[in-house]
Amino acid sequence: MSKTQIAFQGSLLASLTATLLAVSSPVQAQSARDFISVVGSSTVYPFTTTVAEQLGRQGSFKTPKVESTGTGGGIKLFCNGVGVQHADVVNASRRMNANEFQTCRTNGVTDIIEIKIGFDGLTISENKRGASFPLTRKQVYLALAKQIPDPANPTALIANPFKTWKDVDPGLPAIKIEVLGPPPTSGTRDSFHELYMEAGCRSYPWINALRAMDEKRFKRVCHTVREDGAYVEAGENDNLIVQKLEANPNAVGIFGFSFLEENLDKLKGLKIDGVEPTFETIASGKFPAARPLFIYVKKAHIGVIPGIKEFMAEYVSEKALGEEGYLSERGLVALPKADLAKVRADVKSLKPLQL
C-alpha cells in the first residue's frame, strides 16, 4: 500500500471517528437545535413566555419555545438527560425537591442553575357573580379531603360526607362544593397540598403530631383529595379554569394570582383566613398562600444552545424583574432587592444548585 493510500485511510478514519463522536454526544450537535426549549409550570408559563418574546425581539436569537407541561412533568422532562433532544430550561411553581434533583444527577444532569424569579399567591377565586364567601384553610381541607376527622371521635377518620359549603360550616352558603383545580403533575397542586390542605389538616393536634411520627400517613391524611366530583381536575391550562368559572358562578377555582389579575373583569379572589389576595398582601407575606416561583437552567447546554446566557440575563434584568418591570405588569410579585441582587450574582457566576 502506498504512502498516499495510507494517509488517505488515516484521514478517513479520523473523519469517521469525529462523526461518530458527534452523534454519540448530542450536546455537541449544535446544529440540531438553534432555539431554547422550555417546559414546565403553567403558572410560570406567562412570565417565561414574555421573557422569551423580549429575547426574540432583540433579533440575535430565535424566540425560545415555551411549553406548559406542569411542574412535575416539566422537571421529569428536564431531568431525562443532557443533549439537544432534552429541554434546556424548566419552569417551576415550587422548588425542585431532593428526589428530582437526584434523578437529574443519575441521568447526567449534574449542574443545574436555580433562579428564583419572584412570588405568586395561590388563590381560590370565583365568578364576579358568585356568592363571595371568605374561607379558612381548615374549611378548605374539610371540604376537599377524601377522609376527615369524625366529629363524634376527632381522632378517627371518616369518608368526607359534606355536599355543600354550609355542611362544612353553618356560616357558609348552601352551595354545592365544586372546586376546579390542577392535576397531580402540576406544581400548583403540590403548592395547594402544602399551603391549604396541610395547613387545615394540622389544625388537628393528633394529625399535626403524625408529621414527625409517620410522615407517609400524615401525607395520606392531608394530601388525599376526594374523588366524588367535589374536586374537578381541570388540566394544566389555568385559562380553562377561568373559562369554566365564567360559565359557572357557583364553582370556585385554584390558580395563581397572575391569572386572577389578568381576569379581574370576570373573577374575584376569595379572602383566605381573612386576607384578600392582592399584590401588596402577597409581597408583604400577609396572604397565607404566597409561594416562590423558579426556573432551572441546564448548565451543560450553555454555549451549545444559542442564547441561554442572554435569556437568563434578560430574565433577571431590572426591566424584567424590577419592582416596575414588565413581569410585575403580568402579576409577578417582585423579590426584595437584596434577594434579587443575590439571584443576579448566582446567575452571573453560573452557581450550581446544591440540595
Which labels suit this protein?
single chain, 355 residues, alpha/beta, D-Maltodextrin-Binding Protein, domain 2, 2 domains, 9-stranded mixed beta sheet, two-stranded antiparallel sheet, 11 strands, 41% helix
What does this structure look like?
By secondary structure, this protein is of the alpha/beta class. It folds into 2 domains: 147 residues, 3-Layer(aba) Sandwich (D-Maltodextrin-Binding Protein, domain 2), CATH 3.40.190; 171 residues, Periplasmic binding protein-like II (D-Maltodextrin-Binding Protein, domain 2, 3-Layer(aba) Sandwich). The chain has 15 helices and 11 strands. Strand 1, helix 2 and strand 2 form a beta-alpha-beta unit. It starts with a helix and ends in a 6-residue tail after the last helix.
